[in-house]
């Protein structure tokens, strides 16, 4: 048995609940530091440990490296979107864009996502894992909504699903990018209604 | 007369051409530092001067503060888009998206724009001036193309110009965001053709 006492072991007050609470503190500390503008390169396990009030070993017990921790922290900002209620395709698409709108309302989230995008150029593995963990599951849900609409005839049978997704999501991000978090409440409806003009079946010419 | 010798005066080799060349070095040094991941907050006139090989006073003679210099540097990455050739609306829109595509091909440009977006949350005046200087002129050119199409009947007379712009530009940015600069060559055409399905006049139902 290893009898070496870790700094953490020494610092932890007796009886403090461990894993879950510590994990949440570590995630929050990571997001806080990113939100303050500290890039992934400058971010250190040491500074996260100190901010979270835990020892470095507590972090390393759960995450073997900084990038994995950052990905898990970022993913908490992009939880799975609510499963569509099976109403009209229009309703489900509006719900999807409203989730994006709500997320961009918070300055901290915008700062963190911007810095993550910025750093993903230098940390391709981070970008890759974030895509797998947070972007792709959402894409799959919205793609399924679009495919349902193609099946029921609400949408053109020859719709390009990936392109439709890019038009919707891209317009939402574009219109909120410079809005300082104050995009109009009906923006999701307006984008969906404009996009649907091209997504619906065309009457015979 | 002030006889105090500035560091710059001492350092400048005799006969070196001043204003224009120095200005270019200062802009390049600013972009280099941003491209290396140094945020606007950490960026100092001192570090720019040292990288550009000029004295601080040379910078202050032209820019009274750091934010103005950053805005001018960023604007060089988003020059005015080529005036539309007056072909079809489709051709002009493809040209516009191709400009965005070319710009995102360069890692340095992507890094710099990401860090600028990230910092604009903390430097709202920077975001505001960048919008005025680089974003708005482009928006006006593409809006004019869309309005021309509405006049000639190529596009629906009731098209929402701002929304159309957001769908086109947003989709382009969305589809290149995770592409590491390697978006397919025909992406501008594919986006424009998909978007035009909704922008063209609908046959009578």
Automatic annotation (TrEMBL), chains A, B:
Residues 1-22 are annotated as: Disordered. Residues 44-63 bind DNA. GO terms for molecular function: DNA-binding transcription factor activity; transcription cis-regulatory region binding. SUPFAM superfamilies: Homeodomain-like, Tetracyclin repressor-like, C-terminal domain. Coiled coil: none annotated. Keywords: DNA-binding, Transcription, Transcription regulation. The keyword Transcription regulation applies. The keyword Transcription regulation applies. It comes from the Bacteria. Signal peptide: none annotated. PROSITE patterns: HTH_TETR_1 (PS01081), HTH_TETR_2 (PS50977). Residues 20-81 form the HTH tetR-type domain. This is TetR/AcrR family transcriptional regulator.
């Amino acid at each position: 048995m290893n009898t070496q006492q870790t700094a953490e072991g020494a610092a932890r007050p007796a009886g403090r609940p461990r894993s879950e609470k510590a994990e949440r503190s570590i995630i929050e500390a990571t997001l806080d530091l990113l939100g303050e503008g500290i890039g992934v390169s400058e971010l250190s396990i040491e500074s996260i440990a100190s901010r979270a009030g835990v020892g470095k070993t507590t972090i390393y017990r759960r995450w073997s490296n900084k990038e994995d921790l950052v990905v898990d922290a970022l993913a908490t900002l992009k939880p799975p979107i609510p499963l569509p209620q099976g109403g009209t395709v229009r309703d489900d698409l509006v719900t999807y864009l409203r989730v994006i709108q709500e997320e961009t309302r918070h300055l901290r989230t915008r700062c963190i996502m911007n810095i993550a995008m910025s750093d993903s150029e230098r940390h391709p593995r981070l970008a890759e894992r974030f895509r797998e963990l947070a972007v792709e599951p959402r894409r799959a849900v919205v793609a399924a909504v679009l495919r349902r609409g193609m099946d029921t005839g609400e949408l053109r049978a020859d719709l390009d699903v990936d392109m439709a997704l890019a038009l919707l999501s891209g317009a939402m991000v574009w219109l909120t990018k410079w809005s300082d978090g104050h995009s109009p409440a009906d923006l999701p409806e307006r984008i969906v209604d404009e996009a649907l003009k091209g997504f619906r079946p065309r009457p015979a010419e």
